[in-house]
Amino acid sequence: MLHPKNPLFYLQTALYSLVFMDEQSHLLPYARRADFRVSRATELTGKDYRFYRFLEIVPGLAAWLTLIGIILASMYAPFYAAYFIIAFAIYWVLKTIFLSYHVRYNWKRLRHHMELDWQLLMQKFSYGQYYQLIILPYYQEPKEVLDGAIKGLLAAKYDPKKLIVVLAAEARAGEEAGQMAREIETEYAAQFGHFLVTIHPADIAGELAGKGSNTHFALQEVRRKIIDTNAIPYKNILTSIFDIDTVIYPDYFNCLMWHFLTTENPYKSAFQPVPLFTNNLWDAPALSRVMAMSSTFWQMIMQERPDKAATFSSHSVSFQALYEIGYGQANVVSEDSRIFWNLLIANNGNFEVVSLSYPIAMDATIAPTWWGTMKNIYKQHRRWTYGVENWCYIIYHFSKNKAIPLKKRWAIALMQGEGYWSLVTNPIMLFILGWAPIFLGTREFHATVLSYELPIMVRNLLIVSMVGLVVSSIISLSLTPPRPDHHSRFRYVVMVLQWIMVPLTMIVFSAIPGLDAQTRLMFGKYMGFWVTPKREK
Amino acid sequence: MEPQIESLSLKSRQRFFLSLVVIFVLALPALIFYTTGYRLNFENQETAIVTTGGMYITTDNLEVDVYLDEEQVDRPRLFRSAYYIQNIAAGQHRVVVQRPDLLTWVKELPIDAYIVTEASAFNMPIVPHVRPITKYVTATGTPVYLGVASTTQLFSGVTTTLPVLITLSTRTGNYKLNDEYTFVKSLFASSTATSTKSVFKKIMDEVDRFRFSTSTEVLIEATTTEVLVERGNMSLVEKTGELYAVWNGTVQNIPYYFCITNDTPSSTALRYGNHVALQVSKLLLSTTTPMLIDSNRICRPEIKLDRLRQDVYLYDFFPNSSDLVLLQLQDGLYVTEIDDRSWQNTQQVYPGTDFRTVVENGVIYIMDGDKYFELVTEIQPI
């Protein structure tokens, strides 16, 4: 790709516009840029390549420099390292309190929203013209999972004739996956307003195999085959892109519609529910439950900080907004959040996340064996933390799109950067490197009260921060579905005690996969999309 | 009931965030001062900031009682053989480590502000524990003493850790030969064979006060200085009729008890004892054995061992330790610590005037008359 300062750039853009005029005309101006859908440095050339490559290196380098820096400081400046660790431990306690405050607030709001009769609330609106488009991309998941998702839609307190359901299969998954979709279609299609099965071809150039490319294809297909055919205005369609294990709560569409109709800029908003990984929670091992609930808590925190949030996993957005950016990207791993950044950048910063504070149920990660579950959780979190690729994308386009207010660009860049940095460094610093000066410090340091008091102080501060875990434990129990008969009551006790594993899970399933992902990006070893197997076939 | 559509307001979040920032700003210096040794003192109706130090005591036995200045220290819940005592005012403090069935370890140590003083206590049994090694054992391994009427004549002043079988009969038909006995007997036999003159005889004749165990390596023999036993960087040296523990490693790794704070002789005498002050004064002038200077401390390269004004018949490191030394003196076998701050604790581990000792592979064997024992150094819990 040519640089804008290169005279040929404009010729290239003109030719590009001429050739793809029809396909580009509906896009927002910024989304027409050839580099709008960049996913990695190697897709760029010249200065842009170097800048993007530099951005890919920064997160991993920052994390490694921090960790190595603490080790070196512990060896050569142990007193300063000790003071830093005390400061960091206090910061951690306060951060825990800060986040617990958000979780608790959102928990109250979530429960309030779950108690509301949203159907009743919707009576004062006229919304018959609106359709709910539901995209359900899947790969090799068993039929039981697909059934669960479809039955959830049918059980919703919403007119099913206003639902457009797209079951998006993958050609790569083989004939069996397509056959399964057709069986589901035969069984359920008549009950919905529209039902479409799409088979995403395996060989589309420039795509990265995964949920993002499948969704991208399904959105194009549904527009062509259903929306345009039935002349449904794009502005009258709310699109929900759900993971296939998503089972909606009965009032989801009413709650979504209510927020859509009452929010200030409905076409410049993405709507984020709270994912509860509870479909199979009772069958998941303790570590998987802790990770699932931790992810839920993080999303609950983000619900109270929508100005700092991006979309995650299953979420909803107007079809018009998606159409204006060409349905996002088909070449990234973290497609769920990338679509938000596409929307934000293409809309010159005028796009936001609206918190629904209403749940959707999904699967916790499990496998036939305990060890298999651990491996799956690790890989799933490595994929999630590979979302650091979005940081490169954001900064790259923030440097290009000056229409986004500078303050907003800086705020997002720093906040996202700090998020990815702290994700991989904080747990390691707190639970491992916090002790480094004691083992690596000089003799002078070892003879001091500071050397002896440091582990006691850090331990005590960590115990205080564990109060946050008590809050987590109480909230998680309240969000747990009813106990199946085949599980004993004793499991409730385990569900309370499981939270003591948090220090371990933070390191093994957050920090290390995060560091793994950032290091891969740093060395240009780009990751592909890994499908999380959630239930046995 | 209307939905609460608003997220937590930005104002609330900012207010909460700012209050946490204030807590951070206040807590950080307070906790840094606390961890470096500053404490608030509420005594004398006046609140004042005082500086404190600490003490770190390791013990070789669990279930001992540790006292600091006559006050018992709480037992640690974790790492029960290590006691970290906080909030100690600067000055001299007496530490006592004891258990009813063990000999008491006592030391008086100086505590400095911001600094942790280390010490390592050891407590040997009041009544020595031995494991009899007999020529014959039963099928189940019980030691057998033949032609003996009572155990009192077997174990005088010691206690056995194993049940033994005594019989007036001398018939051996029901018993089997003990391989260990043969091995131990050969140890003592070879120990005499390695010298031109029987070590045992030398000891008994009191010809020389210093003899080494044949089971340890002989390094150098010289007329004025003999480096006889070595463990790691520590060696035991006989010099001008005295026994010394000498550090041969770097000053960075030197054990803490070799070092003292660089102070005036009178202050050194007050803090560590006259013997230390005298040694330091001598070493500071010495050109052959100079002091090791390491930033804020000075380290002696050697420490004289207390032989209780008795002749030394045998010396070696105590098994699995380079801080404790085993000494066979005129009236028994002793363990002494190298740490000479205030004084050296010396504890008798086997009484007697007519016995021999061999240390082999970390085991102390005793030949007392015609009987062989292993001296049990591991203390059993109460």
Which tags fit this structure?
heterodimer; A: 537 residues; alpha/beta; 8 strands; B: 382 residues; alpha+beta; 4-stranded mixed β-sheet; 5 helices
Walkthrough of the structure:
- The complex is a heterodimer of chains A (537) and B (382).
- In chain A, 56% of the residues lie in helices and 9% in strands.
- Chain A has helices at residues 7-19, 21-24, 46-76, 78-115, 118-121, 143-154, 175-188, 211-227, 252-262, 286-303, 319-324, 335-346, 370-385, 388-400, 406-431, 436-440, 443-446, 449-465, 467-479, 490-497, 502-522, and strands spanning 131-137, 163-170, 194-200, 237-241, 247-248, 269-276, 315-318, 352-361.
- The longest helix of chain B is centred in the first third of the chain and has 27 residues, at 10-36.
- In chain B, the strands form seven sheets. Chain B has a five-stranded mixed sheet with strand order 12-9-28-27-26, with helices on one face.
- Chain B is extended and about 100 Å long.
- Chain B contains five helices and 28 strands.
- Chain B starts with 9 loop residues before the first helix and ends in a 7-residue tail after the last strand.
- In chain B, α4 crosses α5 (274-285).
- Helices cover 18% and strands 37% of the residues of chain B.
